[in-house]
């Protein structure tokens, strides 16, 4: 039986809002998803019943807070199939997690070493590596993936014995394509490179198994997978996390401090300076529970069917260019020659439809596609086929209104 | 139409809008009134920084009177420029600085163009128009 989004829409109260006198249609899920009641309630419950600082003073509430906080870590570990919960480091999100790795590995890089990324990266998985290259004299290289995400033999030449770090996204946020991840990781590992996977766009849709991927680091943000903002995670293999020099230092991450020296704490605390985002961790664990209680492959199929429905309706229009794939994606990324994407966006907004118009923090990719930006409609499990159709109808109306008659 | 009549007409059209959709359609109509700049005029020097759509603004001053030419690659922004320039064209810098431009745009139902989000450059345009 096909998945029915109405079975869980009621869990997302925000979806019943009116926007500009129309029922809200939220299609900007790749930027951030809405949060189910389960997540909202978990955060409320934490503050009402369990709030105290963690790992400090042994008192009733502090013990409760610490237990819930560490249980949340265990939930995240299970969610991505990490072998140990100490391999999960809390971060503000994907961006911070990548920076923790980029700064942490700096001491291992030498002039002439290579850092390899792909041409589909979000700025978060590009700028930290570029800046690391500037600081160390390493060379940033870019594997030129095409927008269909297929592996080409010539790509293997980008991996060399100087490749020290390979960082790639699992799914492109701008054009929705999945990268040939396993193939790339294999080549990178053959060269002995550290490997990092940006899972920001994957976790909401795909079941992730970091042990099967066999990458050194896996990073993601909570807010893109029905969890709160300001929380995310860095998973790492034990040896990979151990070599990282802590990016931030301070309280919590130390064992013994004198004016002369500091002995750092063990993993995971070593990489978590300061009071953590406790409510965020608890909210994110609730989001994992929410997802794990669904039939995840049915959700994914549904999201993909929405995207391919929009694709099939719009690709026939002569004046629409689509950059996302026809299948196996949960978003549609497009532009209309001679019409500005902000104008299309404004009309969709006037009809209550929220999408994203812009470069999607991937300016080099936009340059590769020959556009300044695209209009992106990205789907989540709560979106309906009616919403997908309404998006198409209103977009076509907008094109009619904006097409030049001058 | 004299300049002040024109300003009044633009004001009335925008104030009559009862929804975002009506404002959108009015801005599309207004955008057609904006004479486009030539390729030679669309240079970096005239570009207004902070706008997600490209916006160019040329200020000329004769006998203390300011004249403006502007363009954008986005249609709605051209409509907004028509509205904004109708408030300031042909005035002295002192007169322009005495106008509460942001309040005027709120009166014209254009407040959503004033949010100081990353994507919005209308405030940057107003600043440039009223700069010494
Ligand atoms: C592929 C990808 N990587 C990284 C990020 C950055 O995530 P955050 O802003 O949550 O740190 C995003 C978010 O837009 C993304 O889509």
From TrEMBL, chain A:
- Membership in a protein family: Belongs to the class-V pyridoxal-phosphate-dependent aminotransferase family. Csd subfamily.
Kindly state which reaction or reactions the protein catalyses: (sulfur carrier)-H + L-cysteine = (sulfur carrier)-SH + L-alanine
* Domain Aminotransferase class V intervals: 25-391
Name of the protein described by the UniProt record: Cysteine desulfurase
Q: Which cofactor does it need?
A: pyridoxal 5'-phosphate
Starting at the broadest rank, the lineage of the source organism is:
Bacteria, Pseudomonadati, Pseudomonadota, Gammaproteobacteria, Oceanospirillales
Its domain of life reads Bacteria
Q: Does the keyword Transferase apply?
A: yes
UniProtKB/TrEMBL annotation, chain B:
**By its UniProt entry, which SUPFAM superfamilies does this protein fall under?**
SufE/NifU
Q: Which residues form the Fe-S metabolism associated domain?
A: 12-130
One Pfam family cited in the UniProt record for this chain = SufE
**Superkingdom field:** Bacteria
**Gene3D superfamilies in the cross-refs:** 3.90.1010.10
Where does the UniProt annotation place the signal sequence? Answer: none
Quote the PANTHER family the UniProt record gives: SUFE-LIKE PROTEIN 2, CHLOROPLASTIC (PTHR43597:SF5), SULFUR ACCEPTOR PROTEIN CSDE (PTHR43597)
Q: What is the protein's name according to its record? A: SufE family protein
Species of provenance: Marinomonas colpomeniae
Organism ancestry: Bacteria, Pseudomonadati, Pseudomonadota, Gammaproteobacteria, Oceanospirillales
């Amino acid at each position: 039986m096909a998945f029915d989004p109405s079975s869980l829409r009621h869990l997302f109260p925000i979806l019943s809002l009116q926007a500009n006198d129309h029922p809200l249609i939220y299609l900007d899920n790749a930027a951030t998803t809405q949060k189910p009641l389960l997540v909202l309630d978990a955060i409320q419950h934490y503050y009402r019943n369990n709030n105290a600082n963690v790992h400090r003073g042994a008192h009733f509430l502090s013990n409760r807070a610490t237990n819930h906080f560490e249980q949340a870590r265990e939930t995240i570990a299970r969610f991505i199939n990490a072998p140990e919960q100490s391999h999960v480091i809390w971060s503000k999100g994907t961006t911070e997690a990548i920076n923790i790795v980029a700064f942490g590995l700096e001491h291992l890089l030498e002039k002439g070493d290579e850092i390899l990324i792909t041409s589909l990266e979000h700025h978060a998985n590009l700028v930290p590596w570029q800046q690391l290259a500037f600081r160390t004299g390493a060379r940033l290289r870019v594997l030129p993936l095409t927008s269909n995400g297929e592996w080409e033999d010539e790509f293997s030449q980008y991996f060399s014995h100087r490749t020290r770090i390979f960082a790639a996204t699992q799914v492109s946020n701008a054009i929705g394509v999945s990268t040939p991840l396993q193939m790339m990781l294999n080549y990178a590992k053959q060269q002995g490179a550290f490997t990092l996977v940006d899972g920001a766009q994957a976790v909401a849709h795909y079941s992730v198994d970091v042990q099967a991927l066999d990458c050194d680091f896996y990073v993601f943000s909570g807010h893109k997978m029905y969890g709160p903002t300001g929380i995310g995670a860095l998973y790492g293999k034990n040896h990979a996390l151990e070599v990282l020099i802590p990016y931030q230092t301070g309280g919590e991450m130390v064992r013994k401090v004198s004016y002369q020296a500091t002995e750092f704490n063990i993993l995971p605390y070593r990489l978590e300076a300061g009071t953590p985002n406790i409510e965020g961790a608890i909210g994110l664990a609730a989001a994992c529970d929410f997802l794990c209680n669904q039939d995840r492959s049915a959700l994914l199929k549904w999201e993909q069917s929405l995207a391919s429905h929009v694709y099939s309706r719009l690709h026939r229009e002569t004046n629409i260019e689509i950059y996302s794939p026809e299948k196996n994606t949960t978003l549609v990324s497009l532009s209309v020659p001679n019409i500005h994407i902000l104008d299309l966006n404004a009309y969709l907004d006037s009809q209550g439809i929220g999408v994203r118009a812009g470069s999607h923090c991937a300016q080099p990719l936009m340059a590769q596609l020959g556009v300044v930006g695209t209009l992106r409609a990205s789907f989540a499990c709560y979106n309906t086929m009616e919403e997908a159709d309404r998006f198409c109808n209103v977009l076509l109306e907008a094109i009619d209104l904006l097409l030049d008659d001058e | 139409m004299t300049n002040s009549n024109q300003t009044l007409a633009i004001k009335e059209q925008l104030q009559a809008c009862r929804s975002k959709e009506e404002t959108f359609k009015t801005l599309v109509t207004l955008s057609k009134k904006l004479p486009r700049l030539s390729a030679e005029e669309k240079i970096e020097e005239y570009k207004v920084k902070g706008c997600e759509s490209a916006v160019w603004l040329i200020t000329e001053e004769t006998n203390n009177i300011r004249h403006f030419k502007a363009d954008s690659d986005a249609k709605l922004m051209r409509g907004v420029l028509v509205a904004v320039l109708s408030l300031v064209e042909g005035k002295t810098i002192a007169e322009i600085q005495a106008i509460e431009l942001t309040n005027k745009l709120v009166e014209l139902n254009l407040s959503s163009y004033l949010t100081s989000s990353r994507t919005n450059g209308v405030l940057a345009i107003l600043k440039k128009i009223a700069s010494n």
